[in-house]
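Hey, can you fold this one?
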Amino acid sequence: MRAIIPAAGRGTRLRPHTHTLPKVLLNVAGKPIIGHIIEGLQKDGIDALTVIIGYQGEKVSDYIDANFDIPAKYVIQHERKGLGHAIGMGLEDTDDPALILLGDTIFDADFADILEIDGTTIGVTEVDDPRRFGVVEVDGALVTKLVEKPDDPPSNLAIMGIYKIASQRRLKSAIDEIVEKDITTKGEYQLTDALQVMIEQGEKIRISKVKGWYDCGKKETLLETNRYLLQSKHNGREIEGNIVVPPVYIGENCEFENSIIGPFTTIGNNTSVKNSIISNSIVGPGTKLTGCNLEGSLIGEAAVVRGLVQHLNVGDHSEIDFS
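Sure. Predicted structure:
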């Protein structure tokens, strides 16, 4: 089965890091966000990809082609007109099914279970404040209504960015309809509006409850996702002359001196850390940290930071000196 991943966004909430990298290539727990997603897809039998790219799209395609043995097709979205518009560009005129996954969310889900459900299926979970999400109203396990970020939500079942589509042709037709009729929500062509059109045309859409989903759309949620992935996949290792508090991920060719690393910390390749305490943070490759006390920080690639600080959000190739 083919998976479609929209990955064309600029990631404005993650600036300055997305000035130099597309959001889906930001590192979390030792690899880019989209790397975690594709690994999960391959494990559960997905054998082809369509990736919607735009902003710095060549970096996305180069990363996938270099790191994964999976046939991938890349579609360029020149204008950002919403998720529905992006997905419509990736659909084929065929009745073959497809799995759609958002490119900035990592899922703790068994995709194989979702793929086995008959018909079109939407992954959902219960949330305290559904106004920030697309929301479904259901009758039993069948969806009766979908609303994008409603002020008055019809339920607390939020759409988590996993969609198993029974027929690409039928979804493509519904997206074409909302574009032709200029049906938008908050100024964009939304996937939820197209799915609602399908329901009104008689499509039976079911829900599947997702156990865990981990957003990577802003600094705070990226660090939360880093904590989860490290706790489930990494324990760390001893480094002579330093203290490592697991779980951590430490890249290759790193240099440490008189430092405490962790917990919940990712250190990129070729990084130097001296006389520092780094916890609950992501540090990009090639960065040099000296005399730092960092907690809850996001440091880009090849940055240089000296001196005693507490919280930083530093882009690639920056230099900060607090000494």
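The two ends are 55 Å apart (CA to CA). Let me know if you want another pass with a different chain boundary.
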